[in-house]
Amino acid sequence: MTELVTAAQMRAIEQAAIESGEVTGLELMERAGQGVVEAIFEEWPELDMEVPDVPAASGEGGAAPAAQGRPPRDISGPKKHRAVVLCGPGNNGGDGFVVARLLKARGWEVSVWELAAPGEGAPDAVACRVAWLEAGGTISTWDEIEPLGAPDLLVDAVFGTGLTRPIPVALANMFRLFRDDWEGAARRERRKMRRVSVDIPSGLSADSGEILIDWEDERGEFPEGWPGFMDWYFDTDLTVTFHNAKLGHFLGAGGESTRKLKVKLLRGLGFTDSPRELPVSVEGHVRLIEPVFHGHRARSDVWFSFVNKHHGHKFNHGHALVMSGPPGQGGAARLAARGALRIGAGLVTVGCPMRAVTEHAVQLTAIMVKGLDGTHGLGEILEDKRITGLCLGPGLGLGPATADLVRIALEAKRGTVLDADALSRFQRKPDVLFDMLHDNCVLTPHGGEFARLFPDLAERLDAQENTATYSKVDATREAAKRAGCVVLFKGADTVIAAPDGRCSINAAVGDRAVPWLATAGAGDVLAGMITGLLARGFDAMSAAETGAWLHVEAARSFGPGLIAEDLPEELPKVFRALGL
Ligand SMILES: NC(=O)C1=CN([C@@H]2O[C@H](COP(=O)(O)OP(=O)(O)OC[C@H]3O[C@@H](n4cnc5c(N)ncnc54)[C@H](OP(=O)(O)O)[C@@H]3O)[C@@H](O)[C@H]2O)[C@@H](O)CC1
Ligand SMILES: [K+]
Fold first, then answer.
1. Which CATH homologous superfamily contains domain 317-577?
2. What are the residue boundaries of the YjeF C-terminal domain, all occurrences included (predicted)?
């Protein structure tokens, strides 16, 4: 897994490196700018070549002759690549000046637009600005919108990790006008304008991924037909960050807008070539669940977990029990049961009221059905210690019986997933649930269920939107602590936290986005997959992480058109691709 950091943690890392004497702030800025330029040419190698000379207007293949009514365009002479670099007043802007200078040194035509000159608070940025001017560069200010001609590259170095207060909507609007102008010019000149953000798309919080924009700023105005901030500015093609990715690249709007992310190492920060370990003790860091590279094969954390399980417990794959509600509502439990079976639980049973047995029996083959006589029946079946995983919630119903079933299940102290109705049933008295939970449980709420169990945290999260830095990570961590068990807060930015502060993100964003996973029953399958892993002996955190990761991989592997039933059936293909 890769470690993600907050803005404060990144500053601490940077500070520690500078204090160690290994590197100066200015050197770091130079390396950051170099990293951005490297990333640009890695991503678009065609930009590293000179634009070919176009033959003069006369002769074959030249421009349309004037006789056809259009004046001949002056397309003679060598064409250079063009870049516009937008620089802000802090160190992110400083990185922008380095990028501008390095591109100019490679023969590019570069224009720099400056929001405000860096002040005393950012001496390294001041130095890089001076170096840009000494290299013959010029600087325009934001009230001079004189298009220089279509750029091939728009570099966003306005705000980075230092943005802590919202930007006025008027400023955001100005960005949009600039961008539209340049994009239009690029289209007219048949160039393609690529957009690159330095560190993080400007205006996003590096901690929460929220858009920090002050919609109510009195200087701002909403133009007619305003398409929304996201539509234009943050939709960058490439984001280049340094040393470690930040939480804001994966959470909230940050996840949606960070389409492609490259992490560039700033050597000299106390270690050399791996962003996976942090050089100084960084309290409370968050891990991104993702494939790791082992030799020449991409293998995932999941791969290692499975291999370990195969070696350690070869003949013991556990028995998962999925509880179902009344007749006519059994589909969700059957989906969960199928997920548990496909992920490798040795046995899976659907436990249901006697009157629902027939409904299940006609639909299930490899999965067993057991009619249970209410809470008493559940207690009885749980005397069988070979049942190692329990799932309650999908289709269980919101009646009083649900609370009793949850109580009996939790008293049995097996690996237990509570989802859907098993969470919502405790809306009025979440503390009653929290008192019963143990450390081998996983709660899997979506946004609505989270708000029912943790209303104050959900409110805080909503209230902070667009203005500050309380993030889904903070809320999930607090929830896990309060509940005393693992909480998996669903979304494209699924956050998983344990009561001891461990936290990870399963991001289905960027090139891992699976919008087709938002389909009825997908959550039930996830609950079942995690249950299957608990039954196999995974601890709660690993089961939640592994289940969430495989759930997205199954959706990616299947592709659009997916329905919930497809998810378990796709797992064997995912396992094969992982080399399991
Ligand atoms: N960490 C590392 O290892 C390295 C970090 N590096 C780079 O440094 C970046 C962080 O730099 P940073 O801390 O100077 O902050 P930055 O993101 O430029 O923005 C803050 C500026 O914007 C201003 N401002 C804020 N809000 C505003 C508003 N609403 N409207 C208008 N202005 C507003 C704010 O003003 P202030 O709040 O101080 O008054 C301040 O001037 C980081 O992202 C990376 O690119 C690399 O160079 C080297 C290695
Ligand atoms: K930026």
1. Ribokinase (3.40.1190.20)
2. 297-578
